[in-house]
Known about the structure:
This protein is mostly helical. The protein has one domain: Four Helix Bundle (Hemerythrin (Met), subunit A) (Up-down Bundle), CATH 1.20.120. It is built from five helices and no strands. The chain has helices at 4-28, 31-64, 71-94, 98-131, 135-146. The mean pLDDT is 96. Residues 8, 12, 48, 52, 116, 119 line the site of one fe (ii) ion (FE2).
Amino acid sequence: MESISTYMQHDHVEIDGIAERATAAAGAGDTGAMAREAALFLQRLEQHIDMEERVLFPAFEERTGMREAGPSVQMREEHVQMRPILDTMRAALAAADGQSWQRGSQALLEILVPHNAKEEQMMYPMLDDAMGPDAAALLIDVKAMAA
Ligand SMILES: [Fe+2]
Ligand SMILES: [Fe+2]
């Protein structure tokens, strides 16, 4: 059975790849590719955060009772830290400003890289453990959001 860890980790890898393509296009001055990849990146990252905040973290908190303190609380806080940076990246995309996109992307990755590592090493494995056989049903809810 596919675990929540495996699925979400794979989503991180895909999103990282889109970020690299968007930044490369921005650096090369390829505005068409930048617009396409940057829009895809923002859409996929927002979707990924929604999977976590709307489905996975609430299920974890309900199952473990770790609502006030715990890994999901810290992960939500880090998502909040990403918000203003994502706003600047959205503005860079709208303005087709490659340099601004690159600056935003660099700032975001400073938070996102360690954030993803913490999720992969701690949050997702704890989720799989906490959910046990119910992880499969939760994963179906997550995948429905990717449709
Ligand atoms: Fe996250
Ligand atoms: Fe994540």
